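Input (G-protein coupled receptors family 1 profile domain-containing protein):
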Amino acid sequence: MENASNITNASRRYSSFMAEYRMVMSWTLGMETVFMIVGTLLNLWLVLSILTSRDLRVRMRNQLIVNMSIINLVQTVIKSPVLILKCTAILHKVLLTREFFCHTYSIMTVVEFTQSFISDWLMVFIIAIFIANIMDMDLESKVTPQVSRLMKAILHLLPWFVAIVITTISISQVTRWYPCLLIPYRNLYIFEIVYTIIPTSLAVLLMVAAILLRIRRFNRGSSTADGNMGVQLIGKGPEIDNTFAYMLAGAICVACEICNLIFVFEIMDWKYRGLTFQMAGYILSDSRVILMIFPWLLLPDIRQRIRSWRPWQRQATGIDLTLTYGKEVP
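Output:
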């Protein structure tokens, strides 16, 4: 009798687990489809609208935003389709080989670590440029054009180079002992510290410094004049960006990482909150490809370009205002 009761309870737990598992797969399939379609369109629109405008693409801040959108596109065109394929196969009970699950898990792991590292460090660079803007630091004018181009190339390529090299070396060491890129949670803990906690914490500290510097500059400008004149002396008009745009971008960056961090740390302590909690963390992390578009729309130059840019319409040629003078012949 007791054995029958145990079997019944085990069967109920298994049925409950499978019901939750199918629900998680369904939600993941739906959300990743949204990320793949909407995220690709939004990021492509942002990238092309900036690159097709000479005034926008010469600014280092906009170049880094384009770089961040490109890594988001890596997720929407590689990771999301692979995850959609995996969820679809599971929901339709397609018999899949172990090699299929290994390859799909490997692709998602590599893209996830690479995207996290590059996006977080690009966020650090963008906030650092904002601080330089607040402090009226024009580093480009103090160096030669060759050094300036080299510095820009380093800022763009260094996160990609480090992420690809470190991820490849680290994962190759893991796969020597663990098949299928099933990274032990202790190694995953180290990955998250290097890839997420350090750059995210640095971005938060820089954002706090930027807010304090902006308040200090505002107070200093207000003390030099009254009314609107004091405001005009603060930031040279539109040259200083909207602080809230960077605050929102930093908040999204932190929010999209925090659930994954909580999940990893609780696993280290042998705690587990279920598949639903894990799914929520992954979905929130992947939603960065859409959410990170909105802070940049608060920047005046990008917002104006997005509103006016219509690639399917030919730009109207300017009106010829050239005046010609002729000598009257009597």
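Residues 2-51 form the longest helix (50 residues).
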